[in-house]
Amino acid sequence: MSSYLLNDQAMQDFIINGYLVLKPENLTEAFHQDAYNRLTAMIERHGNPGSDLLDRAPYINDVLNAPEVTGALTSLIGANHVLDRHCACHNWGPGKDAQGWHKDYPLGGNMRYHRTRTLLLFYYPQQVSPAMGPTAIQPGTQYYMESRPDLPGLNLHVDAGTVVLTHYEVWHQATANTSDRTRFMLKFLYTRTEEPRGPTWDHTTPHWSPQAHQLFPHRNLWQHMWHWYRGGTDDIVYAAGAPSPQEIASLKSPDLLERRCAAEDLGLYGPEAQSAATELAAALTDPDEVVRLNAAYALGSGVADGVPLLLEGLKNEAAEKWKANLQRGDFTNPSQLDLTFGLAAAGGAAAPGLSAALDHSDWYVRAAAVAALGCMGLNADSASSAMTVALADPNEWVARNAAQALGNITTQDGNTAGALADTLTDTRPVTAWSLGKDPLRENAASALAKLGDLPDTLIGPLQQAQTEDSEYLRFWAQTALARQGR
What we know:
With about 475 residues, this protein is an alpha+beta fold. It has three domains: about 1-190, Jelly Rolls, CATH 2.60.120; about 220-425, Leucine-rich Repeat Variant (Alpha Horseshoe); about 425-485, Leucine-rich Repeat Variant (Alpha Horseshoe), CATH 1.25.10. The chain has helices at about 10-15, 30-45, 55, 60-65, 65-75, 220-230, 245-250, 255-265, 275-285, 290-300, 305-325, 340-345, 350-355, 365-375, 385-390, 395-405, 415-425, 440-450, 460-465, 470-485, and strands at about 20, 80-90, 120-125, 135, 155, 160-165, 170-175, 185-190. The strands form two sheets. Strands 1-6-3-8-2 form a five-stranded antiparallel β-sheet. It has a three-stranded antiparallel β-sheet with strand order 5-4-7, with no helix packed on it. The radius of gyration is 22 Å and the shape is globular.
């Protein structure tokens, strides 16, 4: 396995670009041609298998289990990652028109994370020519909620047998198939079950100072991603000195690129950007998403006033955006907010304030606070008791976000597992998502699957959950039991 793990350069490239191309060497051209023929026959005879793909085509497991694939998955989302229930057999036939740029729907209507907790895997059993409607991705867009048609796309003209891994949040599309041949792309989802406590790849160089990027001014964001991947075991190295008045003033420039770069540069000063705290707080409401994200990460980089400013900003952003998020028509979580990422970057220093916000009178503030704690992961362990209480919040989004968040924190107090098990029987009406009608209970089962060792008293509730109508609830209950050796 060790020889197939990614190296530091590959990990850093993934942090920036959000994708990785692999070619399993032990699978022959004949294997891929046979897979193409069998997939074609299967669909002609039985229709598209949907999420039953591996039951109908078990030979595809040879691709998923190839050492190049498992090594990359271990590097990117840890050794105990899980192949999700949802998968798809995309048969893109002749005459198909191009799609628009999009992200896949958020699983469970849950929070979309910058930190890599879910991956997409694409397998192409045939060579993909430019005319066959290749998948196109927009490298580097995994950190954006807003569409960026100004950014270039990359058409995946690949050889037969190619596997592509992407961050779940990368914007992508299928292009028009003007050929006379069907293009298959088999899509699988993989989920991280354990937050990183150290590198899971072939790691040799702890410090990374990303170079400036013409299209993506996010060096501070990328450093935070690297820090998280390494388990947060040491401090981020920031630039020496303090920002100049001119650098701070550039945050208010009428030139968009100048504002983006100013917010990025200020973040690279870390705590020394305190002199720009007021201006960075104002930039949290900039009309441009890149500026807002860079300002949020800058305030979350040790700035003395950063956490209070981010907490106040989160309350305002939640009040302003929750309704628009729900009205997007793509199952967006009402708490999908820019400032959750800045608070996650701040780490444990932000946990007490977010925990206190779980008592706020407005549900959308409570939902945003617990969403930010979920973004944070392990550093939110001091808030686990308050998050456990939030599972019973009368508002579905607070409870749903709490269940999702608790799956990212493995040092919970002793009541958490029991409260999650109780949530398995919480049958209150909730808003459905694209593939399931029971997202609260699905999140609870998923969190239990990620907790590791569970008391024997929870085996019964999980076994009962395996009999429910929701296939995703059944899947996560089965996964939790399998991790207990059941």
